Amino acid sequence: MLLNAVSSRIDEQSFAAVAEAGRRCGLPVEEVDPSAVPAHRPLDNDRALRALHLPAEAYLDARRWLATLDAALAALPNVTRVPTGRLRAVREGYQLRGRKTWLTAPTLVLAAGAWTTPLLDTLDPGLSVLPVVAAEGTAVTVTAPGPLPAVLRTPNRAYACGLHAVPQVDGPWYLGAFAAPALAPGAEPSAVGQLHHGLGTARVRRLHHGNRPVGLDGHPLIGPTARPGLWVATGTHRDGLHASPLIAQELAAAILRDSPGPFLAPWRPDRGPIADWTREEAVEEAAVQHAALAAESRMRPPLTSPS
Ligand SMILES: Cc1cc2nc3c(=O)[nH]c(=O)nc-3n(C[C@H](O)[C@H](O)[C@H](O)COP(=O)(O)OP(=O)(O)OC[C@H]3O[C@@H](n4cnc5c(N)ncnc54)[C@H](O)[C@@H]3O)c2cc1C
């Protein structure tokens, strides 16, 4: 983890928080000389001032994981996969348009990410469910400018997940990720001297674009709605992949006992918005994040002197 010059005070706080969390959890955290970090060849103006080596920090190639999940689903006898479909409510429960016919079930879990709100509106416009908005994300896979033995990343910064380079099993680097809040999901993406100046000539092998689903109050929506048999599971913003095994386990148990239980209770889709901050605290946080965004965008405020 690199603390570089293209940053603001919140990067320092996040950098310190990562070191503290690692130590508190008994994980190895070693401060190292940034100039000795493998695969780190920044422009001089962007160079890291400090670096942490976190040898226990794992990462995975998401393509492999998704392929594994697809294979596991394909092996299940009671799973029917259909293309993006239409939904409707009927006397027996809910119907999803399959390839040729309608599939009927008494229980429906709507896990449609940033598309959840429009789908619910078609199903039951009067249903009270906290809106799900989108945090659009764009990342690229590029030809490797050199070997990358482990993840290189900055701390989280300016509303986003920081800059990170993740090695892919077949050699290229995944570089992520931009974040842009949006009321509705977008269909297209809206490109790096900080990590390795060789990236300036790297070829883009693949452009990734996705819509992270976010509950309007920033928290997930997981649990039953006021409509019998209709459940929602989404709103996990940047953490849905990591949290998915736990969510699946808790959701399956809740559906079987027909009650959300204490773990899911705070995330009821029909809750009022959770307020984590006072209005003044939210305004102050936004100002700090904007200042960090300005620093990362290399904006220089005018120099002023007392008159
Ligand atoms: C660039 C990027 C990087 C990320 N990195 C991480 C990470 O490192 N770790 C992590 O934990 N999370 C990460 N995430 C977040 C994670 O991807 C999300 O939290 C998670 O995918 C949300 O799951 P979901 O099921 O709610 O929505 P989605 O994964 O968006 O799934 C919704 C599905 O519903 C389908 N759908 C929509 N409408 C219909 C319809 N009418 N009929 C049928 N299907 C429909 C969509 O096609 C989609 O497949 C990242 C996201 C992005 C964009």
What does this structure look like?
The chain is α+β, with helices and mostly antiparallel strands. It has a domain at about 60-130 and about 215-265: 3-Layer(bba) Sandwich (FAD/NAD(P)-binding domain). The protein has six helices and 14 strands. It has helices at about 10-25, 60-75, 115-125, 240-255, 260-265, 280-295, and strands at about 1-5, 30, 50-55, 85-90, 95, 100-105, 110, 130-140, 150-155, 165, 175-180, 205-215, 220-225, 230-235. The strands form four sheets. A five-stranded antiparallel beta sheet has the order 9-10-11-8-12, with no helix packed on it. Strands 1-3-2 form a three-stranded antiparallel beta sheet, with helices on one face. The protein has a three-stranded antiparallel beta sheet with strand order 4-5-6. The longest helix has 18 residues, at about 240-255. The radius of gyration is 22 Å and the shape is globular. The model has no long low-confidence stretch (mean pLDDT about 90). Flavin-adenine dinucleotide (FAD) binds near residues 113, 137 and 213.
